[in-house]
Structure formats: structure tokens, C-alpha cells
Amino acid sequence: MTNPPIVRIDNIGKRFGTGPLVLDGINLAVDRGEFISFIGPSGCGKSTLLRLIAGLTDASTGSLVVDGMTPVNAREEMFFVFQDANLLPWRRVAANVELPLLLRGDTAYHREARVREMLQIVGLEAAAGKYPWQLSGGMKMRVSIARALSVAPAILLLDEPFGALDEMTRDQLNEDLLRIRQRDAFTAFFVTHSVTEAVFLSTRIVVLSANPGRIAGVIPVPFAYPRTAELRETPEFLKLLAETSHALRAVRH
Ligand SMILES: Nc1ncnc2c1ncn2[C@@H]1O[C@H](COP(=O)(O)OP(=O)(O)OP(=O)(O)O)[C@@H](O)[C@H]1O
Ligand SMILES: [Mg+2]
């Protein structure tokens, strides 16, 4: 018997108030452990789709089931990561990572162990005592990811998390994210404008067209995990990169 999808989106439509239809006829079933990227032109509804999955906004039509529940009821299983690391400036790095554990009511003993583990995973043990202003943009994003994963969410929603970083830092963080995923399995929904990033990370890439946002195509990414930096230089990778760029150009008109 196959397991039910962790997220099931059936014929979702979304409009804000009396405004135009932003998303139309969205259907997608996602298996546990998948890494789904959404790409498409600006304004096609990528962020709105993530917010719908997260239960932060309601669909106008259709249904959305997250782990057998409504998105709102499944909120504790999900964690949202934004482009802005959103760290609390008055808390040190370790205290920022600790925050979701504290809010959840974990014991001090468990919090300390988990924070240490998470900082080690993202390579920031040495920065535990620093304040956010003492960190580079890439380091801040690492803290944000360590914080998101501290509570081991089943689903991670990421809205252009590395969009503000330079390419080298982004490549590094992509590799980090996959490394973390190897040990702490999660299902990811990832919005990006970078085709390279989408191909490197994903099990499937969902291409959206705009006005209203519709699924123009779903591109399966066949590369096995673990994926390492060298994958980006293989002919297979470059071929899929070209195909994905082509699919994206087609929806841009
Ligand atoms: N709270 C809101 N109220 C009204 N309209 C909204 C709201 N949020 C988004 N929209 C509209 O919905 C459409 C899709 O927006 P969304 O932010 O989801 O696009 P996006 O694909 O994430 O774009 P970008 O790539 O620029 O981030 C846009 O036309 C936007 O103006
Ligand atoms: Mg957006």
C-alpha cells in the first residue's frame, strides 16, 4: 500500500476580496519527503500558494489537506522561512535558535542539546554567542534555518530564502540544506527565481504561469540524493537546467 500524500491540493482558486483571480485550478499531491520548488513570473501567486499551504490565508475555492488536516490545524507541523532572516537583534545566535523550542515548552536540558546540535549542523558553533548584527547575510540565513529546523517540522516552507545572497553563498546554503535533509527528513515547499537552485534542490519543479496563476507544467528532477556540488557541472544537470529555463521563458511571454 502506498502512503497518502502529505499535502494534497485540489482545484484551489484564490482571490483577495473582490479582486481578480490570483490562483486558478491548482492541483498537486506531494509525497512525504519531497522537495517541491515553485518558479514563475513575479506576481503569479507563488507566495500566496505557500501561505495557503501554511494556513496563513484561506482558499476561495477547492480544498487543501495537510497531513490529513486543515492547514490551520497542521500549523504545528510547519515552519515558514522568509528571505529576511528575521532574527531578534537582542538575542544572541543560540538564543534565536532556541526560541521556537522555548515557545513550545521544551525543557532547558533538551533546548540546550538541540541548539548545540542545530548550530553544529549549519556550521555555526563558533558564532553561538554572537549577536545578529555581528553576522554576514549568509550566516544570518543559516541561523534562520537552524531555528526553523530546531523543532524538526514535518514541512518546511521557504519563500525565496536565499534571494538576497550572492551566488557562492547561495550554492553553499543549498548544499547545507540538502545535507540537513539527509539527517532530519522534511518535506519542502520552496519558492525561488533561480532555476539552478530549483534543479539542484528539488524532486519536482512546479512552473506557474501568471494572471491567473496556473500550473503550466511539473518537471521531475531525476537526480539521486545525496547531491553534491559536482552535480551542477554534469551534462545531465545542465540539460535539465536548459529545459527548465525554457519552460520558464514560455510562461513569461
Ligand atoms: N494580501 C493581499 N491582498 C491583495 N492582493 C494580494 C495580496 N497578496 C498578494 N496579492 C496579489 O496576488 C498576486 C500574487 O502575489 P504573490 O505575492 O503571491 O506573487 P509571487 O508569485 O510571490 O510574486 P513575487 O515573485 O514578486 O514574489 C499579486 O497580484 C498580488 O498583488
Ligand atoms: Mg513572492
Structural description of this entry:
The chain is α/β, with parallel strands linked by helices. It has one domain: Rossmann fold (3-Layer(aba) Sandwich). It has seven helices and nine strands, in the order βββαββαααβαβαββα. The chain has a six-stranded mixed sheet, sandwiched between helices. Strands 2-1-4 form a three-stranded antiparallel sheet, covered by helices on one side. Strand 8 and strand 9 form a beta hairpin. Helix 2 runs parallel beside helix 4, helix 3 packs across helix 4 and helix 4 packs parallel to helix 5. The longest helix is centred in the C-terminal third of the chain and has 18 residues. It starts with 6 loop residues before the first strand and ends with a helix. 38% of the residues are buried. The mean pLDDT is 95. The structure holds adenosine-5'-triphosphate (ATP) and magnesium ion.
